[in-house]
Protein: ATP-binding protein
Organism: Erythrobacter aureus
Amino acid sequence: MTAQITIGHESSGKPVEFDIEELLATRLLVQGNSGSGKSHLIRRLLEESAGMVQQVVIDPEGDFPSLAEEFGHVVIDGSAYSPGEIEALARRIREHRASVVLDLDGLEVEQQIRCAAQFLTALFDAPREHWYPALVVVDEAQMFAPAAAGEMAEDTRRMTLSAMTNLMCRGRKRGLAGIVATQRLAKLAKNVAAEASNFLMGRTFLDIDMVRAADLLGMERRQAERIRELERGHFLALGPAITRVPLAVKIGPVKTGHAVRSEGLMALPDTAPEDMAALLTTDLASEVAKAPPPPAPPPAPRVEEVADSIAGAEERQVDTPAEPVDTSAVAARIAEIIGELAQEEGIAFQSASAQYQTFLTRCRRERLIGPMPDMRAFRRRFAIAGAGLGELEEALQTRIMGLAKAVEEDLLGPFLVIAKAAHAGETQVDENELARAYGTSSPGRIRRLLDHLERQGLVVVREDFGGDRTVMVPGLDTIAVP
């Protein structure tokens, strides 16, 4: 049986094929604004590969239950089961290799997130003998792997980020191939998006999303405008399962889905105004009397059904000290933990909220009791530690931090690296150190970083005919960047 499917065609009419076996090893990221054809693309991929591989779809909008009629998927109504039953269902799905759609449309947003997180975790934790290959599709992935803390409870956010990270980072060895689709790349956690090797980028209009999409596709900024101009149902594809160079593809037709879409126009009714008014207002009181009473609020979950967060469990284990706490020792240890964290490999590539939660977890693990730095203070201290500013004299630290007052929080780390090197009079700045401080491996993003800092008046960049760039920090010495 061939592992190739056709997802669409180039402008020349040449079919564009997708290697499902390669996809199982490399994962897929789909991005597109609402109305770009993102759900149509996912449906096409699922329909064409339905007979080849097990499929599990996390569906928060109720878009995919129609797969059941044509291809035999089992539709699971997430609102009809308890958390324990959802986990048991996930284990049976892996055991029996069933293709399913987890329909979360009947749940509130936070319930959707918790249900999906427990379901994905149970898929991931299945016994080794049930590690069969499966495509796991998560639509509206920015809900389940947010780049920043939103309005959801903190334990819910940690639960869902852990589940999505396991799916995308460690799922391959367990046979799980993650396919995540999002409307906004900027709202999707970077450590989730970074694990995909295949990309299908649809129309998007915001600069921040275009820049991230262009980086993932290996395109220059001037080429990123193509993403804004894409028509509905057209995507730019790249990845080992599709193509080795960026390729424009128009997605082919699908068999399932809604026959009528709300985006189209419909003729208005030709009812006379007085008749329409009568239809709207006649016998309202009797209709209200016949209406069923509003449903009672759901009962509070039982304690045994709610998984306490790790942080909460650790906090309950900390006994109230009998003696006064040495706040200076606690503050010193907090500084050491931030310094250790800043030097860890790969930590800069995590989101700021993930770094902060790691810091808090380590403090609780060591039973540190005392005032903790808030998120903003932590980010500044993390940037200072990562740049090695603590090695300098206190007066010089104060001087550099005074220059950094106007720097945005997410750019503070790389600016401090540049400022420290400028003061030391180094002839070259370590690009790897600069990239690490910025949390990127893209030379293009480093160039854009320097351009942005220059526009803000924080640095002055000069490039000679040999291509070497000299970066000057007003108030400090000069460094050269090759």
About this structure: Residues 4-251 form a domain with the Rossmann fold fold (CATH 3.40.50.300). The longest strand covers residues 243-251.
